[in-house]
Protein backbone atom coordinates (compact mmCIF):
# COMPACT_ATOMS: atom_id res chain seq x y z
CA UNK A 1 0.00 0.00 0.00
CA UNK A 2 1.26 3.47 -0.80
CA UNK A 3 0.63 6.06 1.83
CA UNK A 4 -0.73 9.41 0.71
CA UNK A 5 2.00 12.01 0.80
CA UNK A 6 2.17 15.77 0.87
CA UNK A 7 3.56 16.97 -2.49
CA UNK A 8 7.15 18.14 -2.45
CA UNK A 9 7.42 20.08 -5.70
CA UNK A 10 10.63 22.05 -5.18
CA UNK A 11 12.47 19.40 -3.26
CA UNK A 12 12.84 21.41 -0.06
CA UNK A 13 10.06 19.53 1.63
CA UNK A 14 6.94 20.97 3.19
CA UNK A 15 8.80 22.81 5.96
CA UNK A 16 8.09 26.25 4.56
CA UNK A 17 4.33 25.73 4.25
CA UNK A 18 4.23 24.10 7.64
CA UNK A 19 6.22 26.78 9.44
CA UNK A 20 4.05 29.59 8.13
CA UNK A 21 0.96 28.15 9.81
CA UNK A 22 1.63 24.88 11.64
CA UNK A 23 -1.85 24.38 13.09
CA UNK A 24 -3.82 25.30 9.97
CA UNK A 25 -1.49 23.23 7.81
CA UNK A 26 -1.83 20.14 9.99
CA UNK A 27 -5.63 20.31 9.83
CA UNK A 28 -5.64 21.00 6.08
CA UNK A 29 -3.32 18.04 5.44
CA UNK A 30 -5.45 15.82 7.62
CA UNK A 31 -8.55 16.75 5.57
CA UNK A 32 -6.72 16.20 2.30
CA UNK A 33 -4.61 13.10 3.02
CA UNK A 34 -6.43 11.21 5.78
CA UNK A 35 -5.46 9.77 9.18
CA UNK A 36 -1.99 8.54 8.15
CA UNK A 37 0.11 10.30 5.54
CA UNK A 38 3.72 11.19 5.02
CA UNK A 39 5.37 14.58 4.67
CA UNK A 40 8.92 15.43 3.83
CA UNK A 41 10.07 18.09 6.29
CA UNK A 42 13.61 19.16 5.46
CA UNK A 43 15.62 15.93 5.36
CA UNK A 44 13.13 13.84 7.34
CA UNK A 45 10.37 11.57 6.12
CA UNK A 46 7.62 11.97 8.68
CA UNK A 47 4.45 10.00 9.24
CA UNK A 48 1.61 12.18 10.48
CA UNK A 49 -0.88 9.98 12.32
CA UNK A 50 -4.27 10.78 13.82
CA UNK A 51 -5.76 7.26 13.65
CA UNK A 52 -6.43 6.08 17.23
CA UNK A 53 -5.48 2.41 16.56
CA UNK A 54 -2.20 3.37 14.94
CA UNK A 55 -1.47 5.78 17.77
CA UNK A 56 -2.05 2.90 20.16
CA UNK A 57 0.55 0.87 18.28
CA UNK A 58 3.10 3.69 18.39
CA UNK A 59 2.57 4.90 21.95
CA UNK A 60 1.57 1.71 23.74
CA UNK A 61 1.73 -1.60 21.85
CA UNK A 62 5.14 -1.12 20.26
CA UNK A 63 6.36 1.80 22.34
CA UNK A 64 9.72 0.10 22.81
CA UNK A 65 10.34 0.30 19.07
CA UNK A 66 10.15 4.10 19.07
CA UNK A 67 12.64 6.58 20.49
CA UNK A 68 12.65 10.34 20.81
CA UNK A 69 13.79 11.93 17.54
CA UNK A 70 17.38 12.94 16.96
CA UNK A 71 16.18 16.37 15.84
CA UNK A 72 14.38 16.94 19.17
CA UNK A 73 17.54 15.90 21.01
CA UNK A 74 19.54 18.34 18.90
CA UNK A 75 17.31 21.36 19.33
CA UNK A 76 16.43 20.90 23.00
CA UNK A 77 19.56 18.96 24.01
CA UNK A 78 21.63 21.97 25.13
CA UNK A 79 18.83 22.93 27.52
CA UNK A 80 17.53 19.54 28.71
CA UNK A 81 20.47 17.19 28.17
CA UNK A 82 19.59 13.60 28.96
CA UNK A 83 16.69 14.49 31.24
CA UNK A 84 13.51 12.39 31.22
CA UNK A 85 11.91 14.11 28.26
CA UNK A 86 14.71 13.43 25.78
CA UNK A 87 16.42 10.24 26.97
CA UNK A 88 15.66 6.71 25.83
CA UNK A 89 16.26 3.06 26.68
CA UNK A 90 17.79 1.84 29.93
CA UNK A 91 19.00 5.27 30.99
CA UNK A 92 15.48 6.71 30.63
CA UNK A 93 13.94 3.72 32.47
CA UNK A 94 16.26 4.17 35.43
CA UNK A 95 15.69 7.90 35.67
CA UNK A 96 11.93 7.46 35.39
CA UNK A 97 12.00 4.92 38.21
CA UNK A 98 13.96 7.32 40.39
CA UNK A 99 11.69 10.30 39.74
CA UNK A 100 8.35 8.49 39.85
CA UNK A 101 7.87 8.49 43.66
CA UNK A 102 7.82 12.31 43.72
CA UNK A 103 4.67 12.14 41.62
CA UNK A 104 2.85 9.45 43.52
CA UNK A 105 -0.63 10.27 44.68
CA UNK A 106 0.42 10.38 48.34
CA UNK A 107 3.06 12.99 47.69
CA UNK A 108 1.02 15.12 45.35
CA UNK A 109 -1.57 15.59 48.07
CA UNK A 110 1.03 17.39 50.15
CA UNK A 111 1.62 19.89 47.33
CA UNK A 112 -2.01 21.06 47.28
CA UNK A 113 -1.64 23.52 50.17
CA UNK A 114 1.30 25.25 48.50
CA UNK A 115 -0.52 25.45 45.18
CA UNK A 116 -3.50 27.15 46.81
CA UNK A 117 -1.28 29.50 48.82
CA UNK A 118 0.64 30.71 45.76
CA UNK A 119 -2.54 31.11 43.71
CA UNK A 120 -3.97 33.11 46.64
CA UNK A 121 -0.94 35.44 46.55
CA UNK A 122 -1.53 36.16 42.89
CA UNK A 123 -5.20 36.98 43.24
CA UNK A 124 -4.51 39.08 46.36
CA UNK A 125 -2.08 41.21 44.36
CA UNK A 126 -4.51 41.84 41.49
CA UNK A 127 -6.42 45.14 41.63
CA UNK A 128 -10.02 45.11 40.48
CA UNK A 129 -10.46 47.06 37.25
CA UNK A 130 -6.81 46.56 36.25
CA UNK A 131 -5.64 44.62 33.20
CA UNK A 132 -3.04 41.86 33.51
CA UNK A 133 -1.33 39.61 30.98
CA UNK A 134 -2.86 36.39 32.25
CA UNK A 135 -0.51 34.17 30.24
CA UNK A 136 2.44 35.80 31.95
CA UNK A 137 0.77 35.73 35.38
CA UNK A 138 0.12 32.00 35.03
CA UNK A 139 3.70 31.32 33.89
CA UNK A 140 5.07 33.05 36.99
CA UNK A 141 2.64 31.22 39.23
CA UNK A 142 3.29 27.72 37.86
CA UNK A 143 7.05 28.31 37.91
CA UNK A 144 6.90 29.27 41.59
CA UNK A 145 4.80 26.20 42.33
CA UNK A 146 7.19 23.77 40.64
CA UNK A 147 10.17 25.44 42.33
CA UNK A 148 8.61 25.20 45.75
CA UNK A 149 6.91 21.80 45.62
CA UNK A 150 9.57 19.80 43.80
CA UNK A 151 12.79 21.59 44.71
CA UNK A 152 12.02 23.53 47.89
CA UNK A 153 13.18 26.76 46.31
CA UNK A 154 11.43 29.80 47.72
CA UNK A 155 10.01 32.33 45.33
CA UNK A 156 11.65 35.57 44.39
CA UNK A 157 14.98 36.16 42.84
CA UNK A 158 15.69 32.64 41.60
CA UNK A 159 12.41 32.22 39.76
CA UNK A 160 12.88 35.60 38.08
CA UNK A 161 16.31 34.62 36.88
CA UNK A 162 15.02 31.30 35.62
CA UNK A 163 12.13 32.89 33.70
CA UNK A 164 14.38 35.57 32.17
CA UNK A 165 16.71 32.90 30.85
CA UNK A 166 13.86 30.71 29.59
CA UNK A 167 12.29 33.70 27.81
CA UNK A 168 15.38 33.77 25.61
CA UNK A 169 16.00 30.04 25.34
CA UNK A 170 12.55 28.64 24.61
CA UNK A 171 11.60 30.65 21.52
CA UNK A 172 15.05 29.92 20.11
CA UNK A 173 14.73 26.20 20.72
CA UNK A 174 11.26 26.23 19.11
CA UNK A 175 12.59 27.97 16.01
CA UNK A 176 15.62 25.71 15.75
CA UNK A 177 13.47 22.60 16.05
CA UNK A 178 11.64 23.58 12.88
CA UNK A 179 14.30 25.08 10.67
CA UNK A 180 15.51 23.01 7.76
CA UNK A 181 19.11 24.15 8.37
CA UNK A 182 21.17 24.36 11.53
CA UNK A 183 22.01 27.92 12.49
CA UNK A 184 24.85 28.86 14.80
CA UNK A 185 23.62 29.77 18.26
CA UNK A 186 23.69 33.46 19.13
CA UNK A 187 25.45 35.13 22.03
CA UNK A 188 22.24 35.89 23.95
CA UNK A 189 21.38 32.21 23.90
CA UNK A 190 24.76 30.98 25.13
CA UNK A 191 24.76 33.66 27.84
CA UNK A 192 21.29 32.66 29.03
CA UNK A 193 22.18 29.00 29.04
CA UNK A 194 25.33 29.69 31.04
CA UNK A 195 23.38 31.78 33.53
CA UNK A 196 20.83 29.03 33.98
CA UNK A 197 23.52 26.36 34.30
CA UNK A 198 25.37 28.38 36.92
CA UNK A 199 22.18 28.75 38.90
CA UNK A 200 21.32 25.07 38.79
CA UNK A 201 24.84 23.86 39.59
CA UNK A 202 25.09 26.27 42.54
CA UNK A 203 21.81 24.89 43.76
CA UNK A 204 23.05 21.28 43.45
CA UNK A 205 26.26 22.19 45.26
CA UNK A 206 24.30 23.77 48.10
CA UNK A 207 22.21 20.64 48.51
CA UNK A 208 25.23 18.34 48.34
CA UNK A 209 26.82 20.39 51.13
CA UNK A 210 23.74 19.86 53.30
CA UNK A 211 22.12 16.66 52.12
CA UNK A 212 19.32 16.64 54.75
CA UNK A 213 16.33 14.85 53.28
CA UNK A 214 13.77 17.55 52.55
CA UNK A 215 11.31 15.01 51.16
CA UNK A 216 11.22 16.73 47.78
CA UNK A 217 12.02 15.49 44.29
CA UNK A 218 15.57 16.72 44.48
CA UNK A 219 16.24 14.84 47.72
CA UNK A 220 14.88 11.69 46.10
CA UNK A 221 17.04 12.09 43.02
CA UNK A 222 20.12 12.84 45.11
CA UNK A 223 19.59 9.90 47.44
CA UNK A 224 18.97 7.43 44.63
CA UNK A 225 21.68 4.92 43.85
CA UNK A 226 22.11 2.44 41.08
CA UNK A 227 21.02 -1.08 42.00
CA UNK A 228 24.08 -2.64 40.38
CA UNK A 229 27.03 -0.44 41.26
CA UNK A 230 25.64 1.71 44.06
CA UNK A 231 26.60 4.98 42.35
CA UNK A 232 24.36 8.02 42.60
CA UNK A 233 23.37 10.50 39.95
CA UNK A 234 26.15 12.73 38.65
CA UNK A 235 25.82 16.53 38.84
CA UNK A 236 25.26 16.58 35.12
CA UNK A 237 22.40 14.05 35.32
CA UNK A 238 20.84 16.01 38.18
CA UNK A 239 21.16 19.25 36.25
CA UNK A 240 19.43 17.67 33.25
CA UNK A 241 16.49 16.40 35.31
CA UNK A 242 16.09 19.70 37.12
CA UNK A 243 16.03 21.65 33.86
CA UNK A 244 13.59 19.17 32.33
CA UNK A 245 11.13 19.24 35.18
CA UNK A 246 11.30 23.00 35.53
CA UNK A 247 10.61 23.39 31.86
CA UNK A 248 8.09 20.61 31.27
CA UNK A 249 6.39 21.37 34.57
CA UNK A 250 5.40 25.00 34.24
CA UNK A 251 4.97 26.36 30.69
CA UNK A 252 2.50 23.62 29.84
CA UNK A 253 0.25 24.10 32.87
CA UNK A 254 0.48 27.87 32.47
CA UNK A 255 -0.73 27.65 28.85
CA UNK A 256 -3.57 25.34 29.87
CA UNK A 257 -4.70 27.85 32.50
CA UNK A 258 -4.41 30.84 30.17
CA UNK A 259 -6.59 29.06 27.60
CA UNK A 260 -9.09 28.06 30.25
CA UNK A 261 -9.52 31.65 31.45
CA UNK A 262 -9.87 32.81 27.86
CA UNK A 263 -12.49 30.15 27.04
CA UNK A 264 -14.46 30.96 30.20
CA UNK A 265 -14.54 34.64 29.23
CA UNK A 266 -16.13 33.62 25.93
CA UNK A 267 -18.65 31.20 27.44
CA UNK A 268 -20.57 32.90 30.26
CA UNK A 269 -22.94 29.96 30.69
CA UNK A 270 -20.03 27.63 31.47
CA UNK A 271 -18.43 30.28 33.67
CA UNK A 272 -21.66 30.59 35.68
CA UNK A 273 -21.69 26.83 36.35
CA UNK A 274 -18.09 26.97 37.44
CA UNK A 275 -18.60 29.94 39.76
CA UNK A 276 -21.49 28.16 41.46
CA UNK A 277 -19.30 25.09 41.93
CA UNK A 278 -16.30 26.91 43.40
CA UNK A 279 -18.52 28.99 45.70
CA UNK A 280 -20.11 25.84 47.11
CA UNK A 281 -16.64 24.60 48.13
CA UNK A 282 -15.95 27.63 50.35
CA UNK A 283 -12.63 29.43 50.86
CA UNK A 284 -9.95 28.37 50.20
CA UNK A 285 -10.00 25.00 48.43
CA UNK A 286 -8.01 22.11 49.85
CA UNK A 287 -6.96 18.78 48.47
CA UNK A 288 -10.18 17.24 49.76
CA UNK A 289 -12.21 19.83 47.85
CA UNK A 290 -11.03 18.39 44.54
CA UNK A 291 -13.73 15.75 44.62
CA UNK A 292 -16.27 18.59 44.80
CA UNK A 293 -14.89 20.30 41.71
CA UNK A 294 -15.99 17.95 38.89
CA UNK A 295 -17.08 20.73 36.52
CA UNK A 296 -13.76 22.49 37.02
CA UNK A 297 -11.99 19.30 35.95
CA UNK A 298 -14.25 18.90 32.91
CA UNK A 299 -13.53 22.49 31.88
CA UNK A 300 -9.78 21.94 32.17
CA UNK A 301 -9.99 18.73 30.13
CA UNK A 302 -11.99 20.43 27.41
CA UNK A 303 -9.51 23.35 27.32
CA UNK A 304 -6.71 20.77 26.98
CA UNK A 305 -8.61 19.19 24.11
CA UNK A 306 -9.00 22.41 22.13
CA UNK A 307 -5.63 23.94 23.03
CA UNK A 308 -3.30 21.10 24.04
CA UNK A 309 -0.11 22.80 25.29
CA UNK A 310 1.97 19.90 23.90
CA UNK A 311 0.36 20.37 20.49
CA UNK A 312 2.96 18.25 18.65
CA UNK A 313 5.42 15.62 19.80
CA UNK A 314 7.32 13.03 17.87
CA UNK A 315 9.01 9.65 17.72
CA UNK A 316 11.53 7.87 15.55
CA UNK A 317 11.15 4.19 14.67
CA UNK A 318 14.11 1.99 15.61
CA UNK A 319 12.82 -0.88 13.47
CA UNK A 320 10.15 -1.29 10.75
CA UNK A 321 6.67 -1.06 12.27
CA UNK A 322 3.56 -1.99 10.29
CA UNK A 323 0.51 0.18 10.84
CA UNK A 324 -2.98 -0.17 9.33
CA UNK A 325 -2.25 1.70 6.10
CA UNK A 326 1.49 1.30 5.70
CA UNK A 327 4.87 0.80 7.31
CA UNK A 328 6.95 3.23 9.33
CA UNK A 329 10.45 2.21 8.31
CA UNK A 330 13.38 2.15 10.74
CA UNK A 331 14.73 5.68 11.12
CA UNK A 332 11.58 7.42 9.93
CA UNK A 333 9.79 9.93 12.12
CA UNK A 334 6.25 10.03 13.46
CA UNK A 335 4.46 13.24 14.28
CA UNK A 336 1.78 13.02 16.94
CA UNK A 337 -0.32 16.14 17.16
CA UNK A 338 -2.87 16.27 19.97
CA UNK A 339 -4.14 19.49 18.35
CA UNK A 340 -5.16 17.55 15.23
CA UNK A 341 -6.06 14.30 17.00
CA UNK A 342 -8.46 16.14 19.33
CA UNK A 343 -10.36 17.43 16.31
CA UNK A 344 -11.30 14.03 14.87
CA UNK A 345 -15.03 14.58 14.37
CA UNK A 346 -16.08 10.94 14.87
CA UNK A 347 -14.90 11.12 18.48
CA UNK A 348 -15.53 14.82 19.10
CA UNK A 349 -18.52 15.94 17.00
CA UNK A 350 -18.46 19.64 16.08
CA UNK A 351 -14.83 19.67 17.24
CA UNK A 352 -14.27 23.43 17.40
CA UNK A 353 -17.12 23.89 19.88
CA UNK A 354 -16.12 24.36 23.54
CA UNK A 355 -18.26 21.85 25.41
CA UNK A 356 -16.97 20.59 28.78
CA UNK A 357 -19.83 18.08 28.95
CA UNK A 358 -17.84 15.93 26.55
CA UNK A 359 -15.98 14.96 29.72
CA UNK A 360 -18.79 13.86 32.00
CA UNK A 361 -17.58 10.53 33.46
CA UNK A 362 -19.98 8.50 31.26
CA UNK A 363 -19.03 10.26 28.04
CA UNK A 364 -15.32 10.31 28.86
CA UNK A 365 -15.37 6.55 29.35
CA UNK A 366 -16.42 6.16 25.71
CA UNK A 367 -13.42 8.09 24.34
CA UNK A 368 -10.74 5.71 23.02
CA UNK A 369 -7.51 5.88 25.03
CA UNK A 370 -5.47 7.33 22.16
CA UNK A 371 -8.11 9.75 20.82
CA UNK A 372 -7.54 12.20 23.68
CA UNK A 373 -3.87 12.53 24.61
CA UNK A 374 -2.96 15.94 26.03
CA UNK A 375 -0.44 14.11 28.28
CA UNK A 376 0.36 11.36 25.75
CA UNK A 377 -0.18 7.79 26.95
CA UNK A 378 1.75 4.53 27.39
CA UNK A 379 5.12 4.18 29.13
CA UNK A 380 6.20 7.72 28.19
CA UNK A 381 3.02 9.35 29.47
CA UNK A 382 3.63 12.71 31.15
CA UNK A 383 4.99 12.04 34.62
CA UNK A 384 3.30 15.20 35.88
CA UNK A 385 -0.24 14.59 34.58
CA UNK A 386 -1.99 14.21 37.95
CA UNK A 387 0.14 17.01 39.38
CA UNK A 388 -0.91 19.30 36.50
CA UNK A 389 -4.63 18.48 36.65
CA UNK A 390 -4.76 18.99 40.38
CA UNK A 391 -2.78 22.22 40.08
CA UNK A 392 -5.08 23.58 37.37
CA UNK A 393 -8.19 22.68 39.37
CA UNK A 394 -6.90 24.30 42.57
CA UNK A 395 -5.64 27.44 40.85
CA UNK A 396 -8.92 27.94 38.99
CA UNK A 397 -10.99 27.42 42.12
CA UNK A 398 -8.81 29.75 44.23
CA UNK A 399 -8.91 32.55 41.66
CA UNK A 400 -12.55 32.22 40.63
CA UNK A 401 -13.78 32.25 44.20
CA UNK A 402 -12.60 35.85 44.38
CA UNK A 403 -12.59 37.38 40.88
CA UNK A 404 -13.71 36.92 37.31
CA UNK A 405 -11.51 37.67 34.35
CA UNK A 406 -12.87 39.49 31.29
CA UNK A 407 -11.01 39.66 28.01
CA UNK A 408 -9.73 43.25 27.61
CA UNK A 409 -11.80 45.19 25.05
CA UNK A 410 -10.37 44.93 21.55
CA UNK A 411 -7.96 42.10 22.43
CA UNK A 412 -7.53 39.59 19.61
CA UNK A 413 -6.56 36.12 20.76
CA UNK A 414 -5.00 33.54 18.51
CA UNK A 415 -2.87 30.48 19.20
CA UNK A 416 0.88 30.49 18.68
CA UNK A 417 2.34 27.05 18.07
CA UNK A 418 5.65 27.55 19.83
CA UNK A 419 7.23 24.80 21.99
CA UNK A 420 3.90 24.94 23.78
CA UNK A 421 0.64 26.16 22.29
CA UNK A 422 0.06 29.54 23.88
CA UNK A 423 -1.86 32.71 23.15
CA UNK A 424 0.13 34.79 20.68
CA UNK A 425 1.51 37.90 22.40
CA UNK A 426 -0.23 38.94 25.58
CA UNK A 427 -3.51 37.67 26.97
CA UNK A 428 -4.82 40.93 28.45
CA UNK A 429 -7.68 40.34 30.87
CA UNK A 430 -9.46 42.70 33.22
CA UNK A 431 -9.94 41.67 36.84
CA UNK A 432 -13.49 42.06 38.12
CA UNK A 433 -14.14 41.65 41.84
CA UNK A 434 -16.92 39.21 42.69
C1 LIG B 1 -1.06 20.71 31.37
C2 LIG B 1 0.17 20.42 31.67
C3 LIG B 1 1.02 19.40 30.96
C4 LIG B 1 0.91 18.88 29.69
C5 LIG B 1 -0.15 19.21 28.64
C6 LIG B 1 2.00 17.94 29.53
C7 LIG B 1 2.18 17.17 28.40
C8 LIG B 1 3.17 16.21 28.25
C9 LIG B 1 3.31 15.33 27.11
C10 LIG B 1 2.40 15.29 25.89
C11 LIG B 1 4.40 14.55 27.34
C12 LIG B 1 4.95 13.46 26.40
C13 LIG B 1 5.94 14.07 25.45
C14 LIG B 1 6.56 13.07 24.51
O1 LIG B 1 6.32 11.88 24.62
O2 LIG B 1 7.31 13.50 23.63
C15 LIG B 1 4.96 14.94 28.61
C16 LIG B 1 6.09 14.39 29.18
C17 LIG B 1 6.64 14.84 30.35
N1 LIG B 1 6.12 15.77 31.23
FE1 LIG B 1 4.37 16.75 31.01
N2 LIG B 1 2.75 17.92 30.66
C18 LIG B 1 2.19 18.78 31.57
C19 LIG B 1 2.62 19.04 32.87
C20 LIG B 1 3.77 18.51 33.42
C21 LIG B 1 4.19 18.74 34.79
C22 LIG B 1 3.44 19.57 35.82
C23 LIG B 1 5.40 18.10 34.93
C24 LIG B 1 6.32 18.01 36.12
C25 LIG B 1 6.18 18.69 37.21
C26 LIG B 1 5.69 17.45 33.66
C27 LIG B 1 6.82 16.72 33.39
C28 LIG B 1 6.99 15.92 32.28
C29 LIG B 1 8.14 15.04 32.08
C30 LIG B 1 9.35 14.90 33.00
C31 LIG B 1 7.92 14.36 30.87
C32 LIG B 1 8.81 13.28 30.25
C33 LIG B 1 8.34 11.95 30.78
C34 LIG B 1 9.08 10.75 30.21
O3 LIG B 1 9.32 10.70 29.01
O4 LIG B 1 9.37 9.86 31.00
N3 LIG B 1 4.68 17.70 32.78
N4 LIG B 1 4.19 15.95 29.16
Largest sheet: 5 strands, mixed
- Structural classification: alpha+beta
Q: Would you identify the CATH architecture?
A: Orthogonal Bundle
* Count of discrete structural domains: 1
Distance between the termini: 60 Å
Q: What strand order characterises the main sheet?
A: 1-2-8-5-3
Small molecules bound in the structure, each named once: protoporphyrin IX containing FE
User: What form results from the Cα inertia axes?
Assistant: globular
Strand content: 5-15%
How large is the radius of gyration?
A: 22 Å
Number of strands: 12
The CATH homologous superfamily is named: Cytochrome P450
Question: What's the order of the H and E elements?
Answer: HHEEHEHHHEHHHHHHHHEEEEHHHEEEE
CATH fold assignment: Cytochrome p450
- Supply the CATH class: Mainly Alpha
Relative helix content: 40-55%
Low-confidence stretches: none
Count helical runs: 17
- Overall average residue pLDDT: 91
Give a brief outline of the structure.
The chain is an alpha+beta fold and 434 residues long. The chain has 17 helices and twelve strands. The longest helix has 23 residues, at 187-209.
Structural description of this entry:
With 434 residues, the chain is α+β, with helices and mostly antiparallel strands. It has one domain: Orthogonal Bundle (Cytochrome p450). Helix content is 51%, strand content 11%. It has 17 helices and twelve strands. The strands form four sheets. The protein has a five-stranded mixed sheet. Strands 4-12-9 form a three-stranded antiparallel sheet. The protein has a two-stranded antiparallel sheet with strand order 6-7. α6 packs parallel to α17 (385-400), α7 runs antiparallel to α12 (251-266) and α14 (294-306) crosses α17 (385-400). The chain is globular. The mean pLDDT is 91. Protoporphyrin IX containing FE is lined by residues 84-85, 96, 146, 244-245, 248-249, 252-253, 256, 309-310, 313, 374-376, 380, 382-384, 387-388.
